[in-house]
Amino acid sequence: MSRPAIEKTGALDLWSEGAARPAGTLPERLLGPALAVAIGAGLVAAARVVAQEPQGGTLALSLVLGSLFGFVLQRSRFCFFCIWRDLIDRRDPRGALGVLAALAVGVAGYSAVFGAFLPDPSGVRLPPQAHIGPVGLVLVLAGLTFGAGMAISGSCISAHLYRLGEGSPTAPFALVGTAAGFGLGFLAWNPLYLASISQAPVLWLPRTLGYAGALALGLAMLALLAWPLFRFLAAEPARAASARPDPLRAVFVERWPAWIGGLAVGAIATVAYFRIAPLGVTAEIGSRTRQGLAALDVLPERLEGLDAFRGCATIIRDAVLTPNGLFIGGLVLAAFAAALAAGQFKPAWPDPGRAVRGLVGGVLLGFGAMIGLGCSIGTFLSGIMAGAVSGWMFGAAMLAGVTATLLVGRRIGLLS
Amino acid sequence: MSARSLLFVLAASVGLAGTPARAETSPLVTTEWLEKNLDNPKVRVVEVSVEPGVFERGHVPNAQNIVWHTDLVETVTRDIASPEKFQALARRLGVDKDTTVVLYGDNNNWFAAWGAWVFAQYGLVDNVKLLDGGRKKWEAEKRPFDVRVTDVAPSRFSVGQTAPNLRARLPEVLAVAKGERDAKILDIRSPDEFSGKIIAPQGIQELAIRAGHIPGSVNVPWARAVNADGTLKAKDELKKLYAEAGVDGSKPIITTCRIGERSSHTWFVLARVLGYDAKNYDGSWTEYGNTVGVPIVNLAGTVWGGK
């Protein structure tokens, strides 16, 4: 039986790869870290330059937070697909616990911010910008499609972005596919809106439960999900007692434990919401696609109701520099720098199988993220943190989509 | 009145709080005056910004927030907030007839001025002021921002008579357009909207069916009243600006735009700063330009739809 070559996305494979010391002479070994420092300095300089623009504070902070996010994703391999595959294939729950840690920090952080932004949640108003979306069949369809796209392309959109910085041969195809998927989503939007989304309720837990109640329920749900995972935890390999701790190596070379990455993601999410907007990685991809298609005159004159929804907004902006564009740019470049420093920048030539899987999976990712008003970051993470029912529902549908696609794909021999 | 607030009032009255005499008579307050009066219990600072999330991420300390597209309007009937709704809002803000209300916002106080116009409908006119320069100047002068929300004691404000003499309705505007009534209509939209080259600015989907302007109206875009730092121009400059377009206060004035919000800014300048007899026509072009059979001047000849 011949299976197409599969990109190594298993988190465990990459761990062993990351732990290996790069071979070569001293100057060769210093090249990566030196380049990484140069990129970091470049990002700082870029932040200083964009700070001079109108609204420069927001732009510069977006670049900084995007860079931090990219660094954390790369260092802790925060890839939803790999994490889920580790759990169902290898019974390794560490990544999944990391995601739950991110959600717990974010749920608590958002609660604190909400209290200042909208002291009384019981009225008709929602806290500004928080990703609280319509809950209905289209959201389920969005999650299933997005999950299928993850299984086929080997990652979600945010992981493809940081993998782009690691030289992944699949990521460029997946991201091109994502843009195409957004285009298909825009074309499908009006019928979906009229048939279902326009009647879908926007459900926000704090409105009915209050902030304390929603926080308690959120944390309890996360604890309930974490509890069964604990028994899969294997004994950590004992460290040699004499090994001296090496903090620089621990931060810049070795893979971070997923829970540390999770805590950092939760903290970045809270700060991002407090200062700029909820975390999300598809607004720029979506709005640039929409802008391009509108210029080609292939979009409907109006996308009914779309711009009034919360989520990763795809409103066309005239500006060259946007907060989300800089966030994405910082994410990719910082992941590139982090990969260089760790000796994990491994560019490879794409083969046709990867290109096709990237494109096909990317289209599904883009379509799901468009009709779901965000992806595993914007709708799932930022939604659950905000106490939105839409976040939980998208997450459940996404995992169902990944699992079903993997099972079917493996049975017919197209996925491994 | 608590001892603390009594002290503030005493302090204000002996001049510690800047120039209270000027603030009492002028429809504008300076950033400097406001910073000195942030803790003054008779002063209520209220932000009315266009962009959502601006107030929440940092506002003038002790300021309250108004979300214009839900608090100040009836969302279903496209009207200004009903008396009951406005009364509830004013009570929540702790605003009463003797409160000095200082409104400010982003975008050169554009929606803060709209707020002042809605407040005026319910009898809160002379005690409602704009922060000259708005958020822009406050920030440029490195004055403090806060993200915490200050709880205020609700007021017992009750809406009495509305003030219809500050609001123009379609029949009145139509009478002016037909020459049956003597008034000057000041259209503050962009020159391209005024001439009819375009029906509405880019990105606006809520259109009128027809292009052009109300017969006899003159065009002075609203932002021409503002300096680069966001403050309003000096009185004599403003007088000259509008006099050049034939608006000198000798006749009643009706301000108009697309939906009546930008024109509130010009209404504030004319009625409150220059003391002219001015009304705002909040129906504006979305009402007039959609009304069947009314006279229209369409210089550009743009016709909606079809070929």
Q: What does this protein structure show overall?
A:
Chain A has helices at residues 11-19, 26-50, 56-76, 80-90, 94-117, 137-153, 157-164, 171-195, 205-230, 247-252, 258-275, 283-295, 323-342, 352-371, 376-385, 389-411. With 416 residues, chain A is an all-alpha fold. In chain A, helix 8 packs across helix 12 (283-295). Chain B is of the alpha/beta class and 307 residues long. Helix content of chain B is 33%, strand content 12%. Chain B has helices at residues 3-13, 20-25, 31-36, 68-71, 83-93, 106-121, 134-140, 170-177, 191-195, 235-243, 262-273, 284-288; strands at residues 28-29, 43-48, 64-66, 73-74, 79-80, 100-104, 128-131, 184-187, 218-219, 253-256, 278-280. Chain B is globular, with a radius of gyration of 20 Å. Chain B starts with a helix and ends in a 19-residue tail after the last helix. Classes of the chains: A mainly alpha (416), B alpha/beta (307). Chain A binds chain B through residues 116-119, 124-125, 127-129, 274-275, 277, 302, 316, and chain B through 52-53, 56-57, 67, 70, 147-149, 151, 203, 205.
Sequence of secondary-structure elements of chain A: HHHHHHHHHHHHHHHH
Number of strands of chain B: 11
| Overall average pLDDT of chain A | 91
What fraction strand of chain A? under 5%
Shape of chain A: globular
The biggest beta sheet of chain B is recorded as:
5 strands, parallel
Strands across the major sheet of chain B, in which order? 1-7-6-2-3
What class, by secondary structure content of chain B?
A: alpha/beta
Order of helices and strands of chain B: HHEHEEHEEHEHEHHEHEHEHEH
Helix % of chain B is 25-40%
> Count the helices of chain A. How many?
16
* Overall 3D form of chain B: globular
Uncertain regions spanning at least 5 consecutive residues of chain A: 1-20
Q: Tally the beta strands of chain A.
A: 0
Which range does the strand content of chain B fall in? 5-15%
